[in-house]
Write a structure and sequence with these properties.
It is a single chain. The chain is of the alpha+beta class. It is built from 5 helices and 5 strands. It has a 5-stranded mixed β-sheet. The radius of gyration is 15 Å and the shape is globular. The N and C termini lie far apart (50 Å). The relative contact order is 0.17. It binds tetrahydrodeoxyuridine.
């Protein structure tokens, strides 16, 4: 299985493809599937600002659209002094498939902090909650 450092390198590499002319904040992501496959992604912005997508969701959508739904680890890489943790929308999207996902948030120099998605999205909303909803008669 790929090392943390190698996954982070892949995330940095993916960040080079970022389309971020508005924020000037390129982000790369590398998502490790249970079978060892890695899907990468970058942020893709748009002149209609709200239409952009984060690196994490790009990687997740690529993986799911290729038939992968089981994930172990996600590296998020920014060439910045601060670590970058996934935004709220990305946390929610990732929670759907991997509530215990391991996150590696890397900054310039490839130093990183490790989190579990559960830590970043405690008491997350998921399909289990939907299943316990009351049904109309
Ligand atoms: N962004 C990501 O791609 N991932 C994150 O974890 C945080 C933010 C992107 C969205 C936008 O293109 C830019 O970074 C600035 O918010």
């Amino acid at each position: 299985m790929i090392t943390d450092e190698a996954l982070i390198r892949m995330a940095f590499e993916a960040g080079k493809q970022a389309y971020a002319p508005y924020s000037h904040f390129p982000v790369g992501a590398a998502l490790l599937c249970s079978d060892g496959t890695v899907f990468t992604g970058c942020n893709v912005e748009n002149a209609a600002f709200g239409a952009g997508i984060c690196a994490e969701r790009t990687a997740l959508a690529k993986a799911v659209s290729e038939g992968h739904r089981s994930f172990l680890r996600l590296a998020v890489a920014v060439d910045s002094r601060e670590y970058c943790t996934p935004c709220g929308i990305c946390r929610q999207m990732l929670f759907e498939f991997a509530p215990n996902l391991e996150l590696l948030c890397a900054r310039a120099g490839h130093t990183f902090v490790r989190y579990s998605l559960n830590q970043l999205l405690p008491h997350g909303f998921g399909s289990a909650t939907l299943d316990t909803g009351t049904q109309p008669d």
